[in-house]
Amino acid sequence: MATGLAIHGKGNEALELLDVMEGSGIKPNAVTFTGLLSACCHSGLLEEGLYLFHLMKSKSLLSACNLHGDVAMGDKVGKKLLRIQSAQSSAQSTLKSEDYFALSNIYASAERWEDVEMVRQEIKVKGIESKAGCSSVQTSSR
Description:
GO molecular function: RNA binding
InterPro entries: E_motif (IPR046848), PPR_At4g14850-like_plant (IPR046960), PPR_rpt (IPR002885), TPR-like_helical_dom_sf (IPR011990)
Keywords: Repeat
Structural class: mainly alpha
Protein name: Pentatricopeptide repeat-containing protein
Pfam family, one: PPR_2
Number of strands: 0
Number of helices: 7
């Protein structure tokens, strides 16, 4: 759907699909992001495209490393993100609190406790707070 909307210059409608997907518990994959980036391109939505790129770069890749237990790749990605974040001011930061916690979880799953402590110390120093999660349950009346 995102690609179809992209072809017809309906970038905002394609981006709304991302919200609908996330609201339904469906995680975007590489195909989804490709369609959404194409939609931003065809519609001239530069800022939205950059946001998606950073979201895809940080959240999808780091979460995928965690999901698949790829500690080596997660370590590489996490360290690069931390280096980028350190080089930028907090106003320009592309690294979100969930990235720090995902990296910490990757290290914890590999029992790399010194690395867990290093990331958690970084979280504490920077005053980063965990975002509260939420769940929703839909019921249908029959």
